[in-house]
Amino acid sequence: MYRLALYYLSALLIVAVILSFLGLLPFSPFALMASATVILISCRITNYIFALIFKAPANVESVYITALILALIINPPLISNFSAGLLFLIWVSVLATAGKFIFAFRKKHIFNPAAFAVALTAITINQSASWWAGNFYMLPFVVLGGFLIVKKLLRWDLFFSFFAAAMVPILAFAILRGSDPVTILGKMLFESPILFFSFIILTEPVTTPPTRFLRVCDGILIGLAFAPQVHIGTIFSTPELALLFGNIFSFLVSPKGRLVLKLKEKKKIANETYDFLFSAERKLNFKPGQYLEWTLGHRRSDNRGVRRYFTIASSPTEKGVRLGVKFYENASTFKKSLGALEIGDEITASQLAGDFVLPKNKNRKLAFLAGGIGITPFRSIIKYLLDKNEKRDVILIYANKNAEDAVYNDIWNEAREKLGIKVVCQTGFITKEMIIREIPDFKERFFYISGPRAMVTAFEKALKNISVKRSQIKTDFFPGYV
Question: How far apart are CA 111 and CA 102, in angstroms?
Fold first, then answer.
């Protein structure tokens, strides 16, 4: 995801330079390039220094993303008098980068770095962001790349809740003042930073809540605070202040900090599939079926970067954090580095999230459909049920290309014996005929589907063909599968 964001922002900057050459933006292309260069260098140096001081991993992708956002929301100084604005560019860059380390809890920053920096400079030196990327001529490029970002992150819930909530006070103020609501709406869409803000700033993974309900709440709060007419005394709302307000809410309702995990055990459990067990510096409180973002710094990373999303394979009742990983031919540099870990090596994990968890109603009939390594959330859930001796009406169908690819068979055997869970191990795709045969009461069950995206889509289609309602289907589809 981070590489996509980096490419998107870089493309926007290139587009902006071209538009400024054509005279469609109110500043010189040379001033824009000079401003972006100063910000990039300042952020990079500051990040290196603070990473050494705080003994934290220096995530270069994150640094460049923050720098590019700043370059796209702060007007570059006039090239004829560039030195006059140089100090501000350096100062805002230092604040943005330093804020990630200083205003952090357990090595996880609380505030969006760019928003934090421009809000602070507005208060301290009365210089802030113009959010010029909301320019009319930039709009098609903002929307095109922004759509890909939100799709990749699966944050449509946050995007739409924010957008709807933001329109309410904006249109309400327009009506009260006798303005034409349609005209105001057009200006918001085509002449304001709302789309750029909602696509790339609002959706930053680190500062968004972990579940759909909380993200909707976060979007509503930020949206209501976004209208420029909203104010407390003489302080009027700005995009950055609205976002910081939401960041505080997200921090309060989200898991706190990053985990530094040490590899305790690594073993091959099937063809090209390995089980990793990590010891944690503190206990991780999570629900069975949730996932983490894993960061493993390594040299010469490919275009997929140094971060991945993986479901936690262990149960909250077990010690340590377990991870099941399938290694394919021509694996990414991340996978290669993960496979090369030795006992005692470290990896960091954060951003615990996911709604792929057991329903509160223990009497609800469940059906689990898993493909390949998509079995990991079900390993977590069923191990939890075993350890809690919690009986639920569950049927698990587990599909693999070959019988030898099946993993965690000891868990499935124990679940059959102790909890009466029906487990069907299948070679090849799960078809509608199989579902009808193995789950006769399928119309009464709530389906959980996990696996590679193509497999999840196939399972969903099979269920649709036998008239299972969409409201009865939950998929473990997070950014790692996009």
Answer: 10
Q: Which of 313, 304, 371 is nearest to 335 (CA)?
A: 304
- In tens, the pLDDT along 452-467 reads 888 888 888 899 999 9
Compute the distance between CA of residue 69 and CA of residue 96 in angstroms, rounded to an integer. 11
Contacts of 458 (CB under 8 A, 6+ apart): 429, 430
Let me know whether 90 and 138 are in one domain.
Answer: yes
Q: Give the residue carrying structure tokens 């400079």.
A: 121
Tell whether 373 and 308 lie within a shared domain: no
Distances (CA, A) of 481 to 1, 153, 312, 455, 475: 11, 10, 15, 11, 11
The CA distance from 323 to 263, in Å, is: 10
With beta carbons less than 8 A apart as the criterion, state whether 201 and 114 touch: yes
E strand or H helix at 232, and its extent? strand 231-232
Backbone angles phi, psi at 404, to 5 degrees: -70, -10
Extract the tokens encoding 137: 């001529």
pLDDT in tens, 76-114: 998 888 888 899 999 999 999 988 888 877 777 889 999
Say how far apart CA 121 and CA 85 lie, in whole Å. Answer: 13
Count of domains for the chain: 3
Amino acid at 182: V
Q: How many helices (H) and strands (E) does the chain have?
A: 16, 15
CA pair distance 232, 314, nearest whole angstrom? 47
Which residue do the tokens 């407390």 mark? 232
Residue 481 pLDDT > 60, yes or no? Answer: no
- What's the mean pLDDT in 55-82? 87
Q: What's the CA gap between 365 and 295, in Å, rounded? A: 36
What is the rounded distance in angstroms from the CA atom of residue 251 to the CA atom of residue 259? Answer: 16
Expressed as residue numbers, the domain containing 475 is 366-481
Confirm if 311 and 476 have CB atoms less than 8 A apart: yes
Q: Which of 300, 323, 353 is the endpoint of a domain?
A: 353
Mean pLDDT of 203-218: 90
